[in-house]
Write the structure tokens for this entry.
Amino acid sequence: MRYSLIIALFLCACAPSLETIQRSRNDAITGVMNCAAQNWPSHAAQADCEDHAMLAAYQGQKYPYMDLIQWMADQNMLVAKMQDSGQMTDAQASEIISTDFRQMEAQADERLERDRKRTELIAQGLANMSKSTATTQPPPPAHQSTNCMTTFIGNQAQTYCY
């Protein structure tokens, strides 16, 4: 039971709380806004500042889906470099980043829901395990006496027990 509890606690730690998510978002928004308020020599330089702020905010809250945050940072840098090279306007960049952000949020929401369901199932399993070990088991049946009878037919003996 002890090991299953340790495993369950490890697995349950995967689902972040809503407070953790909100703190991460708020910290990221603050960091990105601070970067946007500065004058940068290029879009890529600003994106680098924003990406570091975003990654630090989510890592600081031990956000479990850092691959999504890293993907968003990579997309942000890619778009910024395209802006710097003249391949994309500010309006196009804004639209792409907004779309990418919505995709990232949708993926995070799916993972969060999956992790919450898994956590709930683990908790139910542990509760069921606790119930089954906590209930009193009926005592084993008392030893019943057995009657046996041996009969001889010729040289062969046959024993019957009832």
